[in-house]
Write a structure and sequence with these properties.
about 35% strand, about 110 residues, alpha/beta, five-stranded mixed sheet, Nucleotidyltransferase, domain 5
Length: about 110
């Protein structure tokens, strides 16, 4: 199973690309990206969380960090800033979708 480790946001015109960095139980790494049909960061992370949790092989998003991608930051300090409100939005949507997927599998 995989877990979400980090989430990066990048503006792509009128949309936001969300890249989720996943880590497996065996130390594997992979990225999944989805372009949200919105320019609102909150809606974009919720869209991405729904997509990732719906895949069925990602078990957790606890402690996932949400940041803007390097090309979106103005200073080096910006790279270190986590968006805790977006982290909460991502986790809430992820948990809701994961619960719905598990209910359907029963």
């Amino acid at each position: 199973m995989w877990r979400v480790d980090q989430v990066f946001l990048a503006r792509r015109g009128q949309r936001i690309e969300v890249i989720c960095s996943l880590v497996s139980e065996h130390g594997g790494l992979r990225n999944l990206s989805v372009t949200a049909p919105t320019d609102d960061p909150t809606q974009a992370v919720r869209h991405a969380a729904h997509f990732i949790a719906g895949k069925g092989n990602v078990s957790s998003a606890r402690q996932a960090r949400v940041r803007w991608a390097r090309q979106q930051v103005v200073t080096e300090q910006d790279e270190l800033i986590r968006d805790r409100l977006l982290e909460d939005e991502f986790l809430d949507e992820f948990e809701e979708t994961l619960a719905a997927v598990r209910d359907q599998q029963r």
